[in-house]
Amino acid sequence: MATADRLRQYLSELKPNARALLIKELERSLVRGDADPIADLVLHELRVLARESREGGPRQGTAARLFFKPLEPFLVDDTPQHKHPYRIARAVLEPLWTWIRRDLVAAEAKIYIEQAATLSAAGDIGKAEYLARAFQDKVAVALSVALEDAERDDKARRRLIAQIGTPRAHDDATILCRGLKFRDMLGTLAGHLPGHIGNFTGEALDQALTLIDVVAKRERDAFPYTLLVVMQRLAAPWQLIRLATQAAGSDQAARVADSGYAIAVDIALAEVGRMVAELRADLRGGQGIANGALLKSIHDSARGLRTEIELSHDSIWGRELAALRGQISELLKAEIESMPGRVRRLLRPRGSHDIKPNSQLDPGEVAETELLIEFVGVCRHFAPELALNEMTQRAYSDLQQYLDSGSGALLDGLRHAGAADEPFRASQVEALIRFCRKVFGADYAAMLSKAAEVAITSAAPAAARL
After folding, report:
1. Which of 16, 106, 208, 358 is deepest in the core (most CB within 10 A)?
2. CA nearest 308: which of 210, 377, 241?
C-alpha cells in the first residue's frame, strides 16, 4: 500500500472531532508560515475526508480502488460541473465504475470483482493488484473501441454519454482511457520524480522537463498527463507554470501561450478556481472562518501566477485571474463586513434591567466570533493580492477602535455589578480579553486581565453592601 493510501486509512479511522481539531491546528501552523511538506500532505487528506463526510458519498470497494489507482494524479476534489483540463472529479468514479460493470465489460467485471474480493479477504494484495492491472488492460481496449465508435457515430456518442450520466461523460471516459493506456510510462515518470517538491526550481525543474520530454516523444497524447503527474508532487501546485516559462524562455504571456507547455497555465488557473469553489462551499457550510490556510494557498497561487507571468489585463489568462480575484472579494465581503457588528452585539454595554439574572454570553457565539476575528486578520494579511484591501482595512480599523474605546465601559460595568448581573458582565469582559488578544496581542490582553481582576475585587464588597 502506498504511503498516501496508508495515511488516508489512518486518518479515516480517527474520530471526526479529532480530525477537526487536527485540521484547525495544522491550518493555524501553515498560516503562521511554519512550512512543512508533511503537514501539507496531511491537511490535504483531512480536507478530502471532511468533504466526503459532509457529502456522504459512497466508499469504493477494494476492486474499484485498485482499478482506479493509476488515475490518482488526474483526480480532482471538485464538483463534476467544474472543468479541469485533463482531470476528472473524484465524484465521477462511482458512475464510471457502474458503467464499466453494467455496460462496458459486464462479464469480465463480475469475474474481476469476485476474484479481487477473494484475494483481498485472504490478504494477498500483491495478486489483487496484478489482477487489477490485467482488468485495466481489458477496460482500456474496450474504452478505445467505445470512444472510436462515438467519434464516428453520433448515436453511439449519445448512448455513451447517457450510459455514463456525468456532466462531462465523454471527457471523463477519454481521461480514464488514456490514464489506463499510459499507466506504465506515467508510472515510470513518477518513479523518477522526488516524492515531494517543496520549491520547483533549479535541478528539480530541469529534471521534470527532461522526463516529460522523454515521455512526450514516445506518446504525444500522454504529454498533458505528465504535467499532472508532476503537479501531484508539488507542495505549491501553481508552480507548475514554471515548466511553461522555462520552456518558453520568457515570462511574457504571449510567448508562454505559444509554447507547448501553455496548458500548464490553464491547469494552474483551474486549480485556483477549485480552491475558490472550496472556499465558497466552506463559507456556506459554516467552515470558512477557520480555514485561513486555504485562503493562504489561494493568495500564494494568485500572486505566483501574477508575478511569474506578465499577464496583461486584456489577455485570456489575465481576465481569468482577475475574475477569480473578484469572486474571492465577493465571497469574503459578507464575512469581513459582519465582523465588527458581531463584536458590538456581544460587547454592547447594557443596563442592569437589560440583563437576565445570572445569565452569560453564549460561549459558542463568542468562540465563533473569535474565529471570525482571526479569519479577518488572515484576510487583512492577504488583502492586497485578493482585492480585499479597502473593506478589510475598514472593518479591522472599526474593530480596533471599538475594542480600545469600549473596554473602559465594560470594566466599569463589572466594577459596579451586583450579584445578579455580575456573571453576564464578567463574561463580556472575558470575551473582550479574548478578542483583544487576537487584535492587539498577548501583552494588551494580559493588561486587561489584570484590570478585570481589580474590577471583580472591587465589585465583591459593593455587592455585599447591597
Report:
1. 208
2. 241
Strands (E), 279-363: none
Which DSSP helix (H) or strand (E) runs through 136? helix 125-152
Q: How far apart are CA 45 and CA 406, in angstroms?
A: 43
First to last CA, the chain: 72
Q: Give bridge partners of residue 197 from the DSSP assignment.
A: 234
Q: In whole angstroms, give the CA distance from residue 186 to residue 190.
A: 6
Considering only CA atoms, which of 103, 102, 101, 104 is closest in space to residue 116? Answer: 101
For residues 309 and 265, is the Cβ–Cβ distance under 8 A?
yes
Instruction: Quickly count: other Cβ atoms within 10 Å of residue 310's Cβ.
Output: 16
Which three cell numbers mark 130? 496484478
Rounded CA separation 62/97 (Å): 12
Give the span between the Cα atoms of 77 and 67, in whole angstroms: 18
Looking at residue 75, the DSSP 8-state letter turns out to be E
| Cβ-contact 117, 185 below 8 angstroms | no
Q: pLDDT tens digits for 319-328?
A: 999 999 999 8
The whole-angstrom separation of Cα 269 and Cα 253 is: 14
Average pLDDT in the chain: 87
The pLDDT tens digits of the residues spanning 268-282 come to: 999 999 999 888 887
Is 373 or 20 the better-scoring residue by pLDDT?
Answer: 373
Checking phi first, is residue 179 left (phi over 0); if not, alpha (psi -120 to 50) or beta?
Answer: alpha
Question: pLDDT tens across 147-160, in order?
Answer: 999 999 999 999 99
Read off the pLDDT of residues 179-235 as tens digits, 9 standing for 90 and up: 999 999 999 999 999 988 989 999 999 999 999 999 999 999 999 999 999 999 998
161: Cβ–Cβ under 8 A, 6 or more apart, which residues? 169, 170
